Structure formats: C-alpha cells, structure tokens
Amino acid sequence: MIIRIIVIVVTLAALVFVLFLLFSRKQKPWDQMTEEEKSKKKLLVAGGTSVFLAGLITALLLGKKK
C-alpha cells in the first residue's frame, strides 16, 4: 500500500515538472533559446514524460495484483 502511494506521488511530481517546463511564464520563448538550451529542454521534457508514464504503468500494474 505504501509503495503505491509513493509511486503515485512520484508520478504526479513528474507530471507537474513537465507541465512547469512547458507552460512556465518565466522561460525564454523557443525562438530565443540557443541550440544547447533547446536540447536540454527537450531532454528534460522527455525524461519527465518517461518517468510519468513509467509511474502510471507501475501504479496500474500494482493495482491488478491479487
């Protein structure tokens, strides 16, 4: 039970992280970023999305064990 709660918290944190990266007002517009900044942002969004999806799948699979 406690593991499922931890998985859900991590999944929600990853979702908030990705949404913050995509919609934060304090960031430079895409066309004003350097190639290095664009690459870093793509990597962060992809990493956050993969953590979110992995957590979501794990939470669903933990619920089916009986």
Reconstruct the topology from this structure.
Elements: H1 2-23, H2 35-64
List its salient traits.
2 helices; elongated; single chain; mainly alpha; 66 residues
Overall description:
The protein has helices spanning 2-23, 35-64. By secondary structure, it is an all-alpha fold. It has one domain (2-23, 33-64). Helix 1 runs antiparallel to helix 2 (35-64). It is elongated, with a radius of gyration of 15 Å.
Quick description:
This protein has about 70 residues and is mainly α.
- Percent in strands: under 5%
Total DSSP helices: 2
What distance separates the N and C termini? 13 Å
Mean pLDDT: 89
How many distinct folded domains? 1
